[in-house]
Amino acid sequence: MLVLGIETSCDETSAALVDGTGILSNIITTQDVHQKYGGVVPEFASRAHMRQLLTVIGAALQEAQRALTDIEALAVTRGPGLAGSLLVGLSVCKGIALALKKPWIGINHIEGHILATAETSDTACHPYICLVASGGHTLLVHVKKPLQYKIVGRTIDDAAGEAFDKVAKILGLGYPGGPRVEQSAKGGNPSAISFPRALMESDSLDFSFSGLKTAVLYHVQNLNPEVAEQQTPHIAAGFQQAVVDVLIEKSLRALRRFNCRHLVLAGGVVRNTPLRTAFQQTCRRHDITLSMPAPELCTDNAAMIARAGRMRLLRGQVSSLSLDAMPNLSL
Ligand SMILES: Nc1ncnc2c1ncn2[C@@H]1O[C@H](COP(=O)(O)OP(=O)(O)OP(=O)(O)O)[C@@H](O)[C@H]1O
Ligand SMILES: [Mg+2]
To answer: Which domains does the chain have, with CATH numbers?
Structure first.
């Protein structure tokens, strides 16, 4: 089944073609318009999706060397995300499905992240624990059977990616924060400054990153500006290490609690190279098998939506034209 995936939940306009052999194309355009505002401006995001989406779909077809009429089904993100942005993707998907008389399905964006590593069929080793660490979510999900999700841990305040973005702002590194903190941390010593790791003593599977962010803020405010600038790489490295330590510890806890031997990582924060290396080393030590998406499949992309959609479509699930966007959709 050749599936066209469409993703427009935030500031990436993306279209992908996926079939039984894998990902044939995955075009992702990032909207630069938000950079000067230091964060995503929802109205600009939906306008940019309107301008770009058809071109991006055309590029995905061209790269996969397929025609629009070759598409057998469609999958689109219906939430969570920005209302206007979701509506652009959903409307275009419905329009194409209607014109081609093909089935389509609305997909939960977080399920897309979870299934980004899923190969052509859902043969991942169930049960598994998935750590979702993205811009809007930090979740531990127990996946007992294909497409069945139970959230067993979540952040009680900021998401991990959000903490990276806010710390980047505090350090004056700009937007998007995650990659800039990682870059700065390369020149720093992760042990030079010890930042707090929240909710580590209890047996909780929940996360909290807001205290960590505030600790970075107070640390910076207590330094004179010149010293602060010199210390930036150490602060970035210390912060990054604190996030990685917490994510690893909680993931191990969830694996133990639910008797799982397989860990899946998902979400934009998983692009972080020191995080990837630390998880690889830890899982090897604990005899846990680990799946991580390729970097371009960690952040928002349509291939993960097409993959999730294809799995559901192959089970006979379809959406109807009355399906609406759900900005607050939960897993
Ligand atoms: N190299 C990196 N290191 C750390 N964080 C990163 C890196 N690259 C990206 N990120 C973070 O990943 C987040 C974006 O990921 P993603 O696209 O999955 O989130 P989102 O779609 O905005 O949120 P959600 O999926 O929860 O709705 C941002 O917060 C960004 O800072
Ligand atoms: Mg996302």
So the answer is: 3-115+297-314 (3.30.420.40), 126-260 (3.30.420.40)
